Amino acid sequence: MKVLFITHAFARSGGDVGGSPELRLAIALREEDIEVLILAPGQPGEGSEDVDGIAVERFEMPRRELALASAESTAQTGPRPSWRSRITALRFLSAEFTSAVRARRAFDPDLVHAHWWFPGGLVGTWVSALGSLPLVTSLHRADLRSAQAGSFARPLFRHVMKHSTIVTADSHGLARKARTLMSSRDAVVAPMPADTELFVPGPDRATDRLLLDAPLAPGNGVEQTLDAVAAMRHRVSIDIVGDGPAAGEYRSRAASLGIAERVRWHPDLSSAEQISLCQSAAAVVVPSLREWVPAIAVQALLSRTPVVAFDFGGVTDVVHHDRTGILVAPGDTRALTRALDALLARPDMGANLGEAGRIYALATFAPESVARRFAGIYRQAVDAPPP
């Protein structure tokens, strides 16, 4: 079987921590006798390339327009897009569609797999219609924010959903959110693969240091985590990895709580440094209030590090209470404080939770496991009647 991937967010060499999920999936699909061609944006003159044995076709977009279009496609709720950004998005769609038509003719795929409903899913509906090809559209992370970002977004989203043979979502939380925007179908839950080669158990875990890896913005639980650290019986330090518009506010809050000297801020780290922090933390705190699975939750379990998280959204696909981690009521700072103290008071400091979490993460997020899941979805899509 041949599958054409359409994506706007593709790490060319996997140099960022965790690399590219699309690339990991494409590589793993070879064991399922599935050949993948990845269509992704690039700079002028890049053209075709081979990345770890996977063919990648680049369509040209100037750097400025590429950045604007990518930001637009994963828009957070906020001001309406400007006319300039709308024109940029139209140019992006035109370039992607033209390249996709060429790729379809040359590659002759059996199926199109669009990653993100916009722009890939929208372009996927056009390419699918031209060749009567089944279309699988995958919703990732903050994908649904853009579906609610303007008066034209929701009709476009419903168009993509209606003309997709199968829709998948990274998590149950994201699937539930999608269901509120769709009128006729449920998304199939199918997570993307994690990097099981990079995230492995380390030699030692600290006894008094926590890790929080999240954008420094409201909704990511940074404030609640700082409050919990200040209130804990155990005196702990915490590494906070990330940057964002509320960075100054959170630094001031740490100072006002009297824990400034126990908080280490890391706005930018290398892959090796991030992995080391994940491996060595006593626990990873995931106080997210997002629908999707925070990548750090999976990475922590692969590193055999216990996770304490808010019981909300996609994180519950990863953290099963008292089996692979600890869940507390969403937004409840006191419950978070008690859970962290209780974890550090255990004789094994949560080692059993970390061990069970790694087994679960390997079974669920290892590339070969995910590839088998998607191979079944592809076969189902090929055999299904057109939507």
Structural description of this entry:
The protein has 387 residues and is of the alpha/beta class. It has 2 domains: 2-193 and 366-383, Glycogen Phosphorylase B (Rossmann fold, 3-Layer(aba) Sandwich), CATH 3.40.50; 209-364, Glycogen Phosphorylase B (Rossmann fold), CATH 3.40.50.2000. It is 43% helix and 17% strand. It contains 14 helices and 14 strands. The strands form 2 sheets. Strands 3-4-2-1-5-6-7-8 form an 8-stranded mixed β-sheet, with helices on both faces. The chain has a 6-stranded parallel β-sheet with strand order 11-10-9-12-13-14, sandwiched between helices. Strand 7, helix 7 and strand 8 form a beta-alpha-beta unit. Helix 2 packs across helix 3 (83-107), helix 3 packs across helix 4 (117-131) and helix 8 (222-231) packs across helix 12. The longest helix is centred in the first third of the chain and has 25 residues, at 83-107. It is globular. The chain starts with a strand and ends with a helix. The model is unreliable at 13-18 and 65-79 (pLDDT under 50).
The CATH architecture of the largest domain: 3-Layer(aba) Sandwich
Unreliable runs: 13-18, 65-79
Strand order of the largest sheet: 3-4-2-1-5-6-7-8
**Arithmetic mean pLDDT:** 89
The name of the CATH superfamily of the largest domain reads Glycogen Phosphorylase B
Output the CATH topology of the largest domain: Rossmann fold
Beta-strand segment tally: 14
Approximately how much beta-strand content do the residues carry?
A: 15-25%
Helicity level, as a percent range?
40-55%
* Radius of gyration from the alpha-carbon trace, in angstroms: 21 Å
The 3D shape can be described as globular
Class from secondary-structure proportions: alpha/beta
Number of helices: 14
> Ends: how far apart?
21 Å
Number of domains: 2
Report the biggest beta sheet as strand number plus sense, adding barrel if it closes.
8 strands, mixed
